[in-house]
Amino acid sequence: MNKFTYLLMATCFFCLGPMHGQVVINEVVASNTTINTDEDATYQDWVELYNRGASSVNLSGYGLTDDATLPHKWTFPAVTMAPNTYLLVWCSDKNRAVAGQPLHSNFKISSTGETLTLTNVASVTVDAVTVPAIPSNISYGRIANGTGSFMFIQAVTPAAANGNIGYTQVLSPPTFSQNSGFFTSGFNLTLSTTTPGATIYYTTDGSDPDPANLSGTQYDYRNVYAEHPGDSEGPILHKTYQSLAYNAPISIVDRTSQANDISTINATYKHSPTYLPTSFNVFKGTVIRAITVKQGALTSPIASETYIVSPLGANRFTLPVISIGITESKLFDYTNGIYVAGKDWDDWRDANPTLEPDFVERGNYFHSGAQYEETANFTYLVNGVDVVNQTVGLRIHGGESSTYESKSFNVYARADYGSDKMDYKFFSNLNETNFDRLVFRNSGGDFHNTMFRDALNHNIVRNLNSTIEEYQPTITLINGEYWGILNIRERRDGNYFKRVYNIDSADLDLLENDGLAAEYIESGDNTDFLNLQSYFQNNSLVSDANYQYIKTRIDTDNFMDYFIANIYMDNGDWPGTNVVYWRKKVPYTPSAPYGEDGRWRWVFHDMDDTFGVTADSYNHNNLASATATGGPDWPNPDWSTLFLRKLLQNPTFKNEFISRFADLMNTTFIPSRVISLLNELNNNLLPEIVEHQARFKSPATIDDRDFFIDFETNFANQRPAFQRNHIRSKFGIPANINVTLNVSSAAAGYVKINTINIKDGTDGISGNPYPWTGIYFSGIPITLKAVALPGYVFDHWTGASSATTDQITLTSASALSVTAVFAPVAVAQSQPIYFWLMDGNIPNNVPLTSLASTFETNGIDGNIQYQSCLPGYPYTSADALWRKASMERRNNPTPINYIPEANGGAAYAAGDMKGLQITEPLASGSAVNTMIFNFSTVGYKDIKFSFAAVNELTNATGILIDYSTVSGTPVWTTAGLASSTLPLTSAFQLYNIDFTSITAAGQNANFKIRLRFTGSNMDVSNGNRITFNNIAVHGTQQLGLNHQDVVSFIVYPNPTNGILNVGGTNGEVDFRVYAMDGRLVKSGKLNTEAQLFIDELNSGLYLLQLTSDGKTETKKIFKK
């Protein structure tokens, strides 16, 4: 019988005989992450049924349940099991019961244990099993097959007979008396187990503990290789690792005085490796790894802890610490070790006795692929505390840098190893906490220089229109021995794009270099790219129509920034290599979230050969290299310059390219900013660099490193002038010109020039920048836009233009100066009071119960309270209902309803935006997923509520809206609303709810709005959702005086020379001072003496608005 027949479908035919208990629950999997997938290619729990009888059985009407009170929680369709056949029921919560198709229950199996029951039509129990807690990818099944007792099974057999090997229990790892960490003095470590009759085995050398290795295992290695023709090989040497049976406490001490061990093994192909620490002892911690073993039981997973003993304790290192515990032969064995030149090098030398090595990909460390992935323990210590401790897979990462003394690792979290995520916030600039892959990088081509060049470049360009790789330097220990500085970096592969852009690997084209060789196709295929390349080769882009077509194939903003940055930084190992580009495999979809529109984008990657790598690289014309024809295979063959060459044929693109280049040199690449970032990274490494240099003799001396840093500093200072010369030479531009921008008042607004906002927060700009001067190019159009801040409007330009439109374009052959003049708003206008910006600050994959507003004008947070239709929400990742009926972050931005002034004036940037999703099920019984918005409208009238929303395949047809204006328990009503039901659509649309006719909505400290959903069959759970974005509350300020019988606040003296005292305060008081024309001129909180200083204001009449404890009063004041 083909087992897949019963995995994918069940044959239906009439059953002539009764069941008589012949169908049994035969095998159960409660946590499936690697065993098998359903028809949706997802890993799901499952129950295997087996018909052990001689007749067929019709299961129509039978029930399967994990709740004894609901015997038919899920009901079988008309499915018949022939004798001696198996049937899988996926316990996926997908609720699919169609005969002839894969079966899915409406529940999942708890990995912590529960009872599963199979009942007949009459609800009589046919079979039941109490399932204990089952580890991932282990089953609980009958041995002997179909009739025996339940046991734990390692060799899982879906839809097939169970094997004969089972275990009565799954052992837990030993308990350690101390967790990983730093200690100022030694101590005795005890290991223990609560399992009677069990034995603990452990290692102190980092190897996997194994009862069969008590006598030790020897492996070979070599320290002297035939580097050059004629060199002799050194002898094969030997080392041993072994396991120990635990029978007494283990002494944990500072092991630095002990002889160096694996650090004395040559990791290069050098004949005379001078870097090996033969004259001093490297620092050493201790890695203890242990297992629990018992006859008849499944051996426990390995538990590992790292102990660092030093008089300095946690101050021993100034950087976080990576501790790798690994069986050393996996790294250093002559034949199979992945960290050494080894046999592969010797085989190459034997075949090529007269060749110099130069750079040849020969050596064990060039092995690639899953077969060369070695398991190890990864422990990560931050501020002396272990925040990650798990088994991972390691492979060697890199090209030429794989031959270096210290090597980079690709690090893989896999369910097979215990967890498919590394759950920690490794990077301060990212809120992500779930990484399935990382790189521990040796700094690549900069390993022998500064150790941070690539990270510096990524930091410089982090705010451009491209993807970067985040960076965190660390100290690394391997099996306790000091291994110097490695940098944790994001690994840019298919998993990265799933995490950042929600693109599955099957939907991703990810290519490197020319994209032709199989090794350059990381994901998907190269068909679309080769088609695009052909279009570039065969069509002129002088035509605007052709250029507009190209803009549907590539993200030209991304392409422009990517090429400008690599040109400016003088990347010498580019554009023919280190090129990475990607797209989602869909037709061009302009309304799609950022990254999902089907266009090609480029990634900043491996920028080691840049930024002053040689003393005079600041004057190298990399623009000429990046646009050349007839270049060599390296670094700039024709295919690598084709796109930019052809795009520059188009006048629009050419002018935008030149203008964007000028913009970035005036901000992102401005020397003061670059040198500040350089110093920050360097200062972070300085406390550790001496020990690292001593360990690897890289660079040769500390003075050499200082020399390389001087190169970088000189490059930062010198590059702008040379780069401008290159641009003028390339495009025939006669001169640079100074453009000076000013504003009538920095409090009233700012100017945007081309692509950059001249305001605090823009790269290279801080504080009040006006008047601001940038260097641009004569004859190249410059676009200026005046942006008014709240309370002001643009009036006109002065200087080089007297236009009254807020956006102008100027083309000048000489220096120009222009000022934007703003005027106060004459009357109060509707303005944003609250805004919810959906960005990366919302934690990912975390069910939310509330979400605070990101912008508010009154100092009082608005809040979204979320009520799930499922009881017990929110759930953890261990729960079957995790992320069901959930409110959480989603990668689905939209510019609809985006309000720049509610985000610091920042223009909409899809790459920075996310969304807020409500996931299925949308209802359960009478309960419906509900969002309640709580906020104060004190001081405002004419309230309006708006948001963008899209229905992503749920059964909901609309959004129900009502509101409450009372304090305490809400009283929900729809009175006064034009409509209380908002129709949902499959594309983002703007929803505006107008409360201006509802007086009680304004001046209300307890206003609430409730959103729910309507539709049929909303209790289904197919992984779909409704996504919200850019939620805003608008209102008009109330500036009139309060007329109240009882005055809460007393303001004196009034008139005043500049100091006001406020009496009657109770707690914190917010104030706002308005000019009589409605301009907000001052705001904040009263100081602890309840005094307000207004000395800086001009003489005249003002309105003072005071707010405390939800109550607001407005008073006239006169400044003398």
Give a structural overview.
The chain starts with a helix and ends with a strand. The protein folds into six domains: 3-153, Lamin Tail domain (Immunoglobulin-like, Sandwich); 175-424, no CATH class; 511-731; 736-819; 830-1037, Jelly Rolls, CATH 2.60.120.260; 1050-1119, Sandwich (Immunoglobulin-like). By secondary structure, it is an alpha+beta fold. Strand 33 and strand 34 (521-523) form a beta hairpin. It is built from 13 helices and 66 strands.
List the helices and strands and how they pair.
Blueprint: H1 3-8, E1 23-29, E2 45-51, E3 57-58, E4 63-65, E5 74-75, E6 80-81, E7 86-91, E8 103-104, E9 114-119, E10 125-131, E11 139-143, E12 149-153, E13 175-176, E14 181-183, E15 187-189, E16 191-192, E17 199-203, E18 217-222, E19 236-241, E20 244-245, E21 250-252, E22 286-293, E23 303-309, E24 321-325, H2 329-332, H3 342-351, E25 374-382, E26 385-397, E27 408-412, E28 422-423, E29 434-435, E30 437-441, H4 453-460, E31 471-478, E32 481-490, H5 494-501, E33 508-512, E34 521-523, H6 527-538, H7 544-550, H8 556-568, E35 580-584, E36 601-603, H9 622-626, H10 638-647, H11 651-666, H12 671-696, H13 702-731, E37 736-743, E38 749-753, E39 756-758, E40 772-777, E41 782-788, E42 792-799, E43 807-810, E44 816-824, E45 830-836, E46 850-852, E47 855-856, E48 863-867, E49 887-890, E50 915-919, E51 923-924, E52 927-928, E53 930-935, E54 940-952, E55 956-964, E56 981-983, E57 989-994, E58 1007-1015, E59 1025-1037, E60 1050-1052, E61 1059-1063, E62 1070-1075, E63 1080-1085, E64 1091-1093, E65 1100-1108, E66 1111-1119
Parallel strand pairs: 7-8, 14-23, 24-31, 37-44
Antiparallel strand pairs: 1-2, 1-11, 2-7, 3-6, 4-5, 4-9, 9-10, 11-12, 13-16, 15-21, 17-20, 17-22, 18-19, 22-23, 24-25, 25-26, 26-27, 27-30, 28-29, 30-32, 31-32, 33-34, 33-35, 35-36, 37-40, 38-39, 38-41, 41-43, 42-44, 45-47, 45-59, 46-48, 48-53, 49-50, 50-59, 51-52, 53-58, 54-57, 54-59, 55-56, ...
Helix pairs in contact: 4-12, 12-13
